[in-house]
Write a structure and sequence with these properties.
18% of the residues lie in helices and 31% in strands. It is α+β, with helices and mostly antiparallel strands. Strands 1, 2, 3, 4, 5 and 6 form a 6-stranded mixed beta sheet that branches. It has a 5-stranded mixed beta sheet with strand order 8-14-13-10-11, with helices on one face. β20 and β21 form a beta hairpin. The longest helix is centred in the N-terminal third of the chain and has 25 residues. 38% of the residues are buried.
Length: 711
């Protein structure tokens, strides 16, 4: 059969060419070819070539050899019929053709996967069934037989576009459909229509290796895409279609199509109400994107420990008219409107996902809640809210701005707090916000920061503030004169960054998950520390400079590095950020469950884990160690936490007992500096941080108390 490969493909090309000529002649004149003999000749040749093509398909049960020369590509007759339709006068009226509000189907074949005609047959059957399912459910909820329409050919049959992928299946596996969608975007406008994409494979798999029913996403008001494996069911397609329309999961009841439950034969009343204003279900809805509704939380986002629910009050408004607002994930599902432009909406959120592990609010201290609002023009807004359990250690929350907080740092005297912030608007620059700790008011803003997510750190004397970017393509660090609010220098560098207490070393984290130590005086690299499995997000020196702690984003351990001996000394549970208390006795970090963990540095024991912010993007201790401050990226808040219950009591620096820490105490301390427990002259009362060595850590504790009266 191999010898017939080229003639058969040539016949297929001639068939396409003659068909194109006859079709173009018809299109140009608006009627069929006038010459009857010519028309019969063309039709005869076309049918002869059809027979050749048919025989060729029977002869090759599998794909032709890879080294075969292809004169023409694969002939997709349905696609060709769609691209070159018959004249309007000869084509039956069909509103599905050419209408932008249609669902289109694609059979996507990786280049190592064989075409299966039965898959196309199943696609045509399932899309009809899904259309009927939505029509039945919309009618059952009182909206008539509103449903979506799918693309058809001029015979009224569902049209399936075959697309041969550029890569083997391994390129598309374990990507949850993103690789397929990315490739199809080069040819199809996935924002203008909704696409049902069937991937030629045994099973589409999730990132954890488990089989997945499929994935569906809404892209725009008019577009979206779903990807399912070529073994699919009606309810898989209907469920993923719901996502492309804008519906979210409904895990309250397994009867509903959006629940992935055992009895998915229904559409909820809230989902039907939402779809009644969808451009695919309601021809009166304009296809143009409009201004979506706005949603603002006007009640507190905190709730007491042990609560079973939290009241949610929302201010919702729209330039047109409101249609519906839904709280995704709670039992109290949605609210409808009678055309109001503005309204206050109340929900009662209990955090329950009975089939997915959460049976009560208090089982998870932090909740990310999605509010979906739609107006009568089908414009949709999605607003994420964060609800947090209150902590007995919370002192206050600093607000007054709407930017994402990326880092926080105390001035050495504890009077000022600097916060790096990046705007929610990607076109806006990052900035540094300065707060007065005592009054808890914003006092100034430093603009012209590096793009990305700025990190900040004060110099030991508090006169300078260094700011660098955590995720910027522009590796630049800016030095500010704090008193005058002026830039005094810029140089290359990135973040996170931290100076050792004596200023001799600079620790820098890199995106390639590593830490480098630089000698500041010689500007040479002195050590490269092993990273972990995540991008390094924070570094911290212990007050005596002997330990460097660093951590990544999520699901990794904190690494403790012995700076003196250049080796890893321990790992602790938790993720980034990490920070030492001023006396070096406590290490604070955020855990993967969003709690804040306090560790005893000497014993490596966990002191406590308490409910923290939704995402503690950065942490910092006040100079006296009594306050821990956290910056939250998503809910744009700075929170102060009381650390006094966990502070390790150190011996008083009033060594001479006169009630004041002054020069005389310093002279006594100097005589003991450098002694360790193994030395004969060691006195424990001078070991202020209790690490067994009278060193830099003890000196820092002493300096913090200098000039103070001892009560």
């Amino acid at each position: 059969m191999r010898s017939f490969t080229y003639p058969i493909q040539l016949c297929a090309c001639l068939f396409a060419l003659l068909s194109l000529i006859s079709r173009l002649l018809s299109v140009s004149t608006g009627v069929d070819i006038r010459c009857a003999h010519c028309r019969r000749l063309v039709l005869s040749v076309r049918w002869l070539l059809v027979i050749c093509v048919c025989f060729s398909s029977i002869s090759y049960a599998s794909s032709p050899p890879k080294n075969a020369v292809r004169i023409c590509g694969v002939l997709d007759y349905e696609q060709w019929e769609h691209d070159y339709p018959r004249p309007a006068a000869k084509r039956p009226a069909n509103l599905n053709v050419g209408d932008p509000r249609i669902v289109r189907m694609i059979y996507f074949l990786p280049n190592d996967w064989s075409y299966r005609a039965e898959v196309v047959d199943s696609m045509k059957t399932i899309i009809r069934q899904a259309q009927t399912f939505y029509a039945d459910q919309m009618e059952a909820h009182g909206y008539g037989r509103k449903t979506f329409r799918f693309e058809t050919n001029d015979r009224g049959e569902p049209m399936v576009h075959r697309v041969d992928g550029l890569h083997p299946f391994s390129r598309y596996d374990n990507t949850l459909g993103t690789a397929v969608v990315a490739e199809l975007k080069q040819t199809f406008d996935l924002d203008a229509n909704i696409y049902v994409i069937v991937l030629g494979t045994d099973a589409l798999r999730q990132s954890n290796g488990q089989p997945a029913g499929g994935v569906g996403r809404r892209h725009t008001k008019n577009g979206g895409a779903l990807v399912v494996p070529d073994r699919f069911s009606l309810f898989t397609v209907a469920h993923e279609l719901g996502h492309t329309f804008g519906l979210f999961h409904d895990f309250r009841d397994d009867r509903y199509i959006m629940s992935y439950g055992g009895r998915t034969e229904r559409l909820s009343a809230c989902a039907a109400e939402f779809l009644s204003m969808h451009t695919y279900f309601n021809p009166a809805i304009p296809t143009e994107e409009g201004q979506p509704p706005t949603v603002e939380l006007i009640s507190s986002n905190r709730y007491p420990p042990g609560s079973t629910s939290v009241p949610v009050r929302l201010q919702v408004s729209d330039s047109e008219r409101l249609h519906q607002v839904s709280l995704i994930g709670g039992r109290d599902w949605c609210r409808g409107f009678a055309g109001e432009k503005e309204a206050v909406v109340e929900f009662d959120y209990d955090g329950s996902f009975e089939q997915h592990g959460f049976s009560a609010l208090f089982e998870n201290p932090t909740h990310h809640v999605l509010i979906v609002a739609v107006d009568t023009d089908g414009n949709v807004s999605e607003t994420y809210l964060f609800f947090k359990e209150t902590s007995p250690y919370e002192i206050a929350t600093l607000r007054g701005h709407t930017d994402h907080i990326t880092s926080v740092a105390f001035s050495p005297d504890g009077t000022m707090l600097a916060a790096g912030a990046t705007s929610k608007d990607p076109q806006s620059d990052a900035k540094i916000i300065l707060w007065d700790v005592e009054t808890r008011k914003e006092i100034d803003t430093l603009d012209e920061q590096p793009t990305g997510r700025p990190a900040v750190v004060f110099s030991p004397d508090g006169t300078l503030l260094a700011a660098g970017s955590k995720s910027s393509a522009e590796p630049k660090i800016i030095l500010w004169d704090v008193a005058n609010r002026k830039q005094i220098a810029t140089f290359e560098g990135t973040a996170p960054l931290m100076f050792s207490p004596d200023g001799s070393l600079l620790a820098v984290g890199f995106r390639v998950s590593e830490i480098k130590l630089w000698d500041v005086r010689t500007q040479r690299e002195v050590a490269e520390l092993p990273g972990n499995t995540s991008q390094i997000n924070a570094v911290a020196f212990s007050p005596d400079g002997t330990i460097l702690a660093y951590g990544g984003w999520i699901d990794v351990d904190i690494i403790l590095w012995d700076v003196t001996n250049r080796k890893q000394s321990a790992t602790l549970e938790g993720a980034s950020p990490v920070v030492f208390s001023p006396d070096g006795t406590i290490l604070a970090a955020q855990a993967t469950d969003r709690t804040i963990i306090l560790w005893d540095v000497a014993s490596r024991d966990k002191i406590i884990a308490f409910s923290g912010p939704s995402d503690a993007n950065s942490l910092a201790f006040s100079p006296d160690g009594t306050i821990l401050v956290s910056g939250s990226f998503f809910d744009c808040t700075i929170t102060l936490w009381d650390m006094s219950p966990f502070s390790v009591s150190a011996p008083t620096p009033d060594f001479d007992g006169d009630g004041v820490v002054d020069v005389s105490d310093f002279l006594l301390f100097v005589d003991q500096f450098g002694f360790s427990q193994s030395d004969a002259g060691y006195e424990a009362r001078f070991d202020l941080d209790g690490d067994g060595v009278i060193g830099i850590g003890d000196f820092l504790v002493f300096v913090n108390s200098f000039g103070k009266k001892v009560s």
